[in-house]
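Archive maintenance. Older records in this collection stored only the sequence; we are now back-filling the structure field for every entry so that each record is complete. The fields below show one back-filled record exactly as it appears after the update. Entries are processed alphabetically, and HTH cro/C1-type domain-containing protein is next in the queue.

ARCHIVE ENTRY
Title: HTH cro/C1-type domain-containing protein
Organism field: termite gut metagenome
Length field: 78
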Amino acid sequence: MKKEIDLYTSNVMRNKRLEKGWTQRQLSGYMGISSIFINNIESVRKPDKLNLYHINLLAEIFDCSPREFLPEKPILEK
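Back-filled structure field:
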């Protein structure tokens, strides 16, 4: 099961992708990774998660700060 922080970052990615009207395949093309990986990141059941390289790349793609992918305060695990 994914950690809360991983769910948070993947939700930010999904929301930004949907705001642009992009499919998972389109985003994967911009990132140079497989659409299956994007699907796995957005899935709560798959262990794949974003790393700092991905967050930095997404910030460039979405023209925003990498900070937007992280919460303002720490997320404590339940």
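Update note: The CA atoms of residues 41 and 50 lie 7 Å apart. Residues 4-64 form a domain with the 434 Repressor (Amino-terminal Domain) fold (CATH 1.10.260.40).
Entry marked complete.
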